[in-house]
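Data card: per-record layout.
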Amino acid sequence: MKNRIFLCCFFTALICYTGNHALFAQSGASHPDKLPWVDGEFPAKRGAFEYHVARGEGATLSGARNDAFSGLLADLGNQAGVTVNSQTIAEIKSSLNYNAGSENYQESTSNVTTHRIDREGFKASFTKVSEYYEYALGRYLLWELYEVSAGAAFTAVIPEYTTHYGGSALWRSMIIPGWGQFHKKKVTKGVIMLTAEVAAISGLAFCELRRSDNWRKSTETTNVNIAKEYRNRADSWELRRNIFVGAAAGVYLWNVLDAAMAKGKLKYAWVPDNLNLITNGSNGYYYCGLSIDF
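The structure for this 294-residue chain is written out next.
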């Protein structure tokens, strides 16, 4: 009876979960914390360019990027009064050595590439400066922010967006020092926090072990002078232990405050949940399963 109740609850939750994802995909709804430029709230311009948002969709992130880039070329051609068909898009991609890139987006001035089209009646320079995507039901919904100039070269300006983390980084750092920093993509700082806290706690434990050992020895001897020596040593190790206690508390407090107040890296993606339903088929066989991302 209990097993039946459990199975009923499990499949009911699974149906609701799948239904919510389907509703999300069909409605085209976006996560409320998406980057503001996705809805047309562009940063202030600091150069001779215009902002342009390209949207793509695909089963893979690279496929969605290709779709968005093709749409960008078609839009730029239409603005220039030129019809850009699929063959022209393929030729332009080939001439630009366009590559959809890896499955992750890193915001960095060193990764910025300015593309330039110089064809009869169609001239443009453009640079991708930001990216945001959402994932649902095995499909990527992608938005790319471009800075575009009508032919003239320009210097790209990277928008200074940071992720809206809320309290997610704070509670992580309260559980494990450095976890909040890792969550904000501040890996170096996270390693420093975690290493410092582990070192302080290890030093604390070692000093406490030596203190208790010396105190035990002082109680086991009948020689007053030897007992006094052991107690002096115990006091010395207690002082060192207290220093490590203060260091551990200081690092922990610093870690929590930093997780709550410091800015994080640019938000480039949002995946609805850690739990995902996977379906696929091959050679007439179909299978489904659940994946959990940690």
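Known properties of this structure: The first helix runs from residue 2 to 27. The CA atoms of residues 31 and 122 lie 36 Å apart.

See the next section for split statistics.
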